Amino acid sequence: MISACETSAPPSTVENPGAWNVTKGRPQLLSGELKRGSGSKEALARSYLTEQAARFHLDAPGRSLRLSTTREGLAGTYLRFAQLQQLGNESLRVWDGDVIVLVNRDVVRAVNLELRDEAHLAVLPDQQPPLAEASRRARELLSLSKDADVAHERVVHVSKTGEARVAWKFMASTEAPPHDWSLLLDVETLVELERRDGVKFIDGTGYVFDVNPVASTGDLTLTDSMNQATPALEAARFLVTLPRLDGSGLTRGDFADVRTRDAGARVSSPTNEFLFSRNNLGFEQANVYFHLTRTQERIQALGFIDVNNRIQGAVVDQQNADNSFYSPQTLRLGFGTGGVDDAEDGDIVMHEYGHAIQDNQVPGWGGGDEDAMGEGFGDYLAASFSLALAPDAGRPQLSDPACVGDWDAVAYSNDTPPCLRRVDTTKHWPEDSEYASHADGEIWSASLWRARSLFGADVVDTLVLESHFILGTGGTMFTASEALLNANVMLDAGADETLLRRTLISYGVSRRLSPAGDGGVALSIPVSIGPVRDAAGNYRNGTDETRTLTVPGASGLQLHFDRVVLETSNDCVGRSCDNIYLFTPSGDLYQVITGTQSAGLTSVIVPGDTVSIRLISDDSQTRFGYRVDRIDVIGDVMDAGLVFDGGMDPFTPPMDAGVPDAGRPDAGAGDAGVRDAGVVPGPSARTLPPAGDETLTPMVQRGCGCGAAEAELTLPLLLVWCGARRRKS
Fold first, then answer.
1. Are residues 143 and 224 in the same domain?
2. What is residue 575's three-state secondary structure?
């Protein structure tokens, strides 16, 4: 233990102006003739440090120094002292804590205080997982075999924010690829605190597509040409840095190990230059290595250190079919060579890497809706990372950014542009489910893509990756949406919670309900409102229709359905094939109505003066749908002496299937009780929708001392308009 004897340099010393550690309030590096003395160099150095202990913050409880190395330089002898911290009966090394002293003959010439000042704040926890469990965790994180030699010791780790924790330090070396790992795990939680690799990787160079030739050129006429190295495709290559290679001459490094099915076809370059034409398997090995490594680097740049942070194996010619895959058993990616070689398209590489990411975060991923969400996440990852990374590297993407795999797709797609899939569809879950993982994945990817457009790539990419950790192996889209919303709160990621929730609701992947309103019923308005119907009196397949009802001045609206009949089937998600959603125009969801309600149904109270009824159906059977026969108005919106008669004619389905059921034959006609049916009285006028939409105005019986003029001013106006679209032809 070094104690403070003096707090200033002796008069005989000369101290030059040095570096000052503003954060710690002490010197950092000093030089000059700091102290003269006799004896050994270590004794002289220790004597100087003892004199300056308080000034240098060496007098903290339990702090001491141990000489670790001595090296001779041209300016003298450099003595490196390791910082130690006494905790209980142990004297623990402080990670990255050192004091280096330069002694020339009998003079201390310089000192560098690389101390971790907060180390004395570390506490030995009472409860710790056993060493065997910590060792298993270290092997898992470092992808080590069970028989690999792993050394260990306990140290004190101080984070960049000054938090001191006792940690296990595990040390292991590997040969293929070479690594010298130092991994620090919190002794109490086994959370990774830091890792360091003593093996220094090198950068190579190679030709790649970024992300593919269609995306980088915008040329939709490009074709595979039987895998020929055509001038157009050769010109679409980019010479890039291949980072973090292990120096073996192979496309192998810190995050990827890319090879061929036949070991003899694997390329090797002693200069780490992979300069191949696109018809050479060496090109595909460089291309896959580049995209896998860059993807992991972006993941880590977002702050993640444990999201598939391993050497990802990949085989560029795994099969002759036009299909690629990730194997949870072998942990490898396999790319097909049918059509366009999949390993040439960065979108396909990143999509498959997405499966590896989810399997790493949620071992056993794939139950419930997770097959679809896995495909959707892979597509989103490819689209989002392509749009974020390639332009940052000076290679703008000139094709449609929502089109995934537009190079691979030239072999089979007749669309313009050709796409494997898109991430901007307007499909709604679960009514648009095709019970096929790739098709249904477009719903999940579209919801994420829309969120990305609102909050930015970094925010949404971070939320999606973080949300995976809490999912089980049989998750639903509803659960995954909740995980996204929770991740946003936990990370304070910056996405507006309300807007994110409404975005997920708009695609049907979230059914988080907003709190219903309350209050007494001020009046009830008889109505007859239903969906567009066919000649048989049923809504049509592929319906997506919204009717919006407004009673100006109301504090809430409650709907009474005298009949609800919707399609149900064991083959549909949650047995509900078609659904009714009650929400506000802002996008807040208050109720989901399913199945058959033959005895009628009273909805929850939707706050405010407007409620929207959205009916969405699948493409199979049709049913009657619904009929609203009464609107209960919450709040004091009228003179209690007025008596309202809805004046609605009995409900009869229209004979013309293309005409909305307005609920009365003269819908849209002006009402004598309202001056201008096209304007809602109040501080901000609302113009009615264009022709074809509806206005329903209740008739009024004047009485109870209320004159015609007063009735005209106080009459609550019920506005109804309908927006319908066909989702599919």
1. no
2. helix
Q: Looking at the structure, do residues 193 and 209 belong to the same domain, yes or no?
A: no
Q: Based on the fold, state whether residues 529 and 493 are members of the same structural domain.
A: no
List alpha helices for 398-510, DSSP H.
Answer: 437-455, 457-468, 477-491, 497-506
- pTM given for the model: 0.70
Q: How many CB atoms within 10 Å of residue 301?
A: 9
Per the structure, how many domains does the chain have? 4
> Are 177 and 290 in the same domain?
no
Q: Give the single-character DSSP code of 517.
A: -
- Domain membership of residue 540 (yes or no) is yes
Residue 78, strand partner residues: 71, 102
Same domain, 660 and 684: yes
Q: Is 244 left (phi over 0), alpha (psi -120 to 50) or beta?
A: left
Domain that holds residue 461: 203-506
Cα separation, 497 vs 478, whole angstroms? 16
- Determine the Cα–Cα distance for residues 276 and 204; give it in Å rounded to an integer: 13
Query: Does residue 688 form part of some domain?
Result: yes
Bridge partners (DSSP) of residue 699 are 645
Strand-pair partners of 556: 607, 634
DSSP symbols for 302-322: TT-SSSS-S-EEEEEEEESSS
Does the residue 185 lie in any domain?
Answer: yes
CATH number at residue 190: 3.10.450.40
| Residues in the chain with pLDDT values less than 70 | 1-13, 176-177, 638-729
Judged by DSSP in three states, 645 sits in strand
The verdict on 166 and 262 lying in the same domain is no
Q: What is the DSSP letter of 251?
A: S
Helices (H) and strands (E) in the chain, counts: 13, 33
Asked if 28 and 163 sit in the same domain, the reply is no
* pLDDT tens readout for residues 203-238: 999 999 999 999 999 999 999 999 999 999 999 999
> Six-digit token pair at 722?
């309908």
Nearest-angstrom CA–CA distance, 28 and 25: 9
Longest distance between any two alpha carbons in the chain, whole Å: 114
Beta-strand relationship, 610-616 and 325-327: unpaired
> Do 277 and 356 sit in the same domain of this protein?
yes
Say how many C-beta atoms besides its own lie within 10 A of residue 416's C-beta: 9
Q: What does the block give as tokens for 599?
A: 């005895």
Structure tokens at 111: 């000192």
- Residue 118: CB atoms within 10 Å: 17
